[in-house]
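Ligand: copper (II) ion. Inputs:
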Amino acid sequence: MNPSRRQFLVRSTHAALGAAPLALAHAPARAARPALLAPRQDAAGLGYRPTVTPNGVALPFRVVDGVKVFHLVAEEVEHEFAPGMRAFCYGYNGRVHGPTIEAVEGDRVRIYVTNRLDVPTTTHWHGLILPNGMDGIGGLTQRPILPGETFKYEFVLRQHGTYMYHSHHDEMTQMALGMMGMFVIHPRSPAGPPPDRDYTFLLSEWKLAVGARRPDPNEMSDFNVLTFNAKIAPATAPIVARRGERVRIRIGNLSAMDHHPIHLHGHAFRVVETDGGPIEPAGQWPEVSVLVPVGSTRTIEFVADNPGDWALHCHMTHHVMTQMGHGIPNLVGVDPSKFDDGIAELVPEFDSMGMAAHGETDDSVPPNSLPMVGMRGPFGYITMSGMFTLLKVRDELAEGVDPGPYQHPSGTLALPASAEELRADGIAG
Ligand SMILES: [Cu+2]
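Predicted complex:
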């Protein structure tokens, strides 16, 4: 027998992707924010260049008689969305969301799912073409996995691309609490070399009342925690590329109710695949935002040819916010300070702007909650949170190390206009 076939292959390099904690350059100065920034991994030993799941990990596997064997454990997890906000969620293998499953087209996979929750569950392999009885729909294609049981799913991967997995039993509750992950399948015979960088994001949305410890699965519209890989900015790890490198970003959306237009600054990209398959080159068109509908994946590719710190975020403005302050009256143009002073005599902790509208008053927010917006950037406060991260493009990069804030070459930074400049151009300041 081929020795490799019985080899116990816990892919240490695979499992360790993103293991180095780093302080984010766009994190508030008041605390070092640990995050995961994974170096590019090369294909040695795996037969493919792994994708990197920022803030996440890949699911380890072993090969038994030529079958890739994975093990997911569904369980309750105390998850940190960002320092200062934790909640009791449902996840897999101690994580929210679950680890990214990664394999190659043509692989036979055997995925054990152990249910350590106190409720029944199933696992559905979203987008995969597989035998009906492996589809993981509670009551329809299988009986639910009861607490304490382990089910075995086994099938051959007939496709390549970007897919997902998630609970398909009591979906409203279990997905609202985080039971989902990404499933990446590399091509068996790639048409060309893989991109230099390959990143995977899973979008989701949550309702977590201020100070609460349990996401509310009954919410239908007013989600107040919007996440990239279950993190909100500033806890979202930046992604990096060297100038000129080809970058692939895979984006899945398992939000309950919202589609997300994900916008990349400084670059145009092409949408190269959906979870229905690759898009022929003639059918790809350029975009700077890609709408990722609920229950879909979109994969984009581009050449990172523009150095800088580029925002990558959902373009819905309330999806780059977090928690408090959404239910307040319209105070645009109002000076609330006198009002605040008057109320403060009665309610000392009162703040009319939702307690922390500008994020500067973190000390005043209630326990286990975060300001609506904000993180400190090199030029002051960044008024976004939620579904926001950075693409850092540099001429030189050390792998696995945050390159820090971009240093703008002389003459390439917006600055206050001088009186002389205004006069010369006939602008009435
Ligand atoms: Cu959005």
